[in-house]
Specification:
The protein is of the alpha/beta class. The chain is 34% helix and 23% strand. The strands form four sheets. A six-stranded parallel sheet has the order 2-1-3-4-5-6, with helices on both faces. Strands 7-10-11-12-13-14 form a six-stranded parallel sheet. α12 (311-324) packs parallel to α13. The longest helix is centred in the C-terminal third of the chain and has 26 residues, at 350-375. The protein is globular, with a radius of gyration of 22 Å.
Length: 444
């Protein structure tokens, strides 16, 4: 039996795919190692969404190749979106790579690894529209939180996005399977469940019921003993209805935090990019959410330099941000991806798109400062994530902070804290954009 190392890049959905591959290999008798050096096979699970993600993936493969040259790893297997997108080029242009698996072939991970161990090369690209095959996972997150992927693929076909061609059509997992996995995670100590998919809001629309089942699923998740926080990511604005809003507002376990990728607010650009809705709709939606949940934290992602974005459209986006004061915003310069309609449209040059993204970040920095100032003096529930040895202080997250993408809270405490427990802390400071506070009550 072999030692297998993993490098996983990209989004939380990709991370779940990686955890499932690790489980399959372990079930087959192989050893999944925490470090890459010294392994017989290293699996590089890639993202290939935009140029920066592709560069990161290529750099990771090259680093693995260097370790291979030094005799520190045996074989290299590339999986994920980059291999799916560039099926022939990966092995042709990167001789250090011994095998590739497409996004429709994750279930073939054991066969692929064992072929490489026998000295063969391996290349397989299965049906990206096939139903999800249920399996276990080896969590790569801390024990107290986990991502729960409820669907695969996407039917939105935004003009700038290659995801449907890499991940296939939208396929919901059955609710029974999702709930079973959630119960297993909770029984193993997971307290925060982060619900993800390329589009969580369409969950259930492809199942026999042919209707949006996300609110029903969330209510069922809230009944699972042991789960304390349930967080929702990747909810498309046009699919947020009163049932979802009411469910979020009424269920105590659902944190008042919502990730809604809007990309832009200008009506012309939204239409060009095949996005449903309008600026007026977005403003009304945010108003409805805040009316039902005054303390809700809204996260979104924006693309600057999209086709159709002149100075007027960009200024409209900036005005929209100043007015809406969304608490969490990520801005990315437009990356024209081959094979997408947007790549053939006129757009500003990349340097200008980068400049505009920086302007958005500056606006958002001021909004974040205002938000952090409002938090001063409040007593908030905080999930303890760990201890920073260098600084000598515990840290955690509030309901408004999703792991790895949002901020943290530095915690002062008279007693040692335990990772994965909840405490109540009074917020009394702001350190480089992160909150700080002192613990006043420990919870189970």
């Amino acid at each position: 039996m072999a030692k297998i190392g993993f490098i996983s890049l990209g989004c939380a959905k990709n991370q779940v795919d990686c955890e499932r591959m690790m489980y399959r290999l372990q079930e087959a008798g192989h050893t999944v190692c925490p470090d890459v050096a010294g392994t017989d096979v290293v699996v590089v699970n890639t993202c290939g969404f935009i140029d920066s993600a592709k560069k990161e993936a290529i750099d990771a493969i090259l680093r693995a190749g260097y370790l291979k040259e030094q005799g520190l790893v045996g074989k290299i297997l590339v999986t994920g979106c980059l291999s799916q997108r560039y099926q022939q080029q990966v092995m042709e242009e990167m001789p250090e790579v011994d095998g590739v698996l497409g996004t429709g072939s994750y279930t073939r991970i054991v066969a692929a690894v064992e072929a490489l161990l026998q000295g063969d090369t391996y290349s397989e690209f299965g049906d990206i529209d096939a139903p999800e095959v249920e399996t276990g996972r080896i969590l790569t997150t801390p024990e107290h939180y986990a991502f729960l992927k409820i669907a695969e693929g996407c039917d939105n076909h935004c003009a700038y996005c290659v995801i449907p061609s890499l991940r296939g059509k939208y396929r919901s997992r059955s609710m029974d399977d999702v709930l079973y996995e959630a119960r297993v995670l909770a029984a193993n100590g997971v307290k925060e469940l982060i619900v993800v998919a390329q589009d969580t809001s369409r969950y259930g629309t492809d199942l026999p019921e042919k209707r949006r089942l996300l609110p029903e699923l969330l209510r069922a998740l809230c009944q699972i003993e042991g789960l304390h926080w349930i967080r929702i990511h990747y909810v498309y604005p046009d699919e947020i209805d009163d049932d979802l809003i009411d469910t979020m507002a009424s269920e105590e376990k659902i944190v008042k935090y919502l990730d809604i990728p809007i990309q832009h607010c200008n009506d012309k650009i939204l239409t060009l990019m095949n996005r449903r809705g309008s600026r007026k709709y977005l403003e009304e939606l945010f108003g409805r959410l805040r009316a039902k949940m005054p303390d809700i934290v809204l996260r979104t992602s924006l693309i600057t330099g999209l086709p159709g974005e002149g100075e007027a459209e960009f200024e409209e986006l900036c005005d929209f941000l100043r007015a809406q004061k969304l608490e969490r915003v990520g801005a990315f310069p437009f990356s024209p991806e081959e094979g997408t309609p947007a790549a053939e449209m006129d757009h500003v040059d990349f340097d200008e798109a980068v400049r505009r993204a920086q302007v958005v970040e500056e606006i958002q920095s001021r909004i974040m400062d205002e938000y952090n100032e409002k938090m001063q003096g409040r007593t908030l529930e905080v999930l303890v994530d760990g201890f920073d040895e260098e600084i000598g202080q515990f840290f955690g997250r509030t309901y408004g902070d999703s792991p790895d993408i949002d901020g943290i809270v530095w915690l002062a405490s008279e007693e040692p804290l335990t990772e994965g427990t909840f405490v109540r802390a009074v917020i009394d400071g702001n350190v480089d954009g992160d909150l700080s506070g002192y613990v006043v009550e420990a919870e189970q």
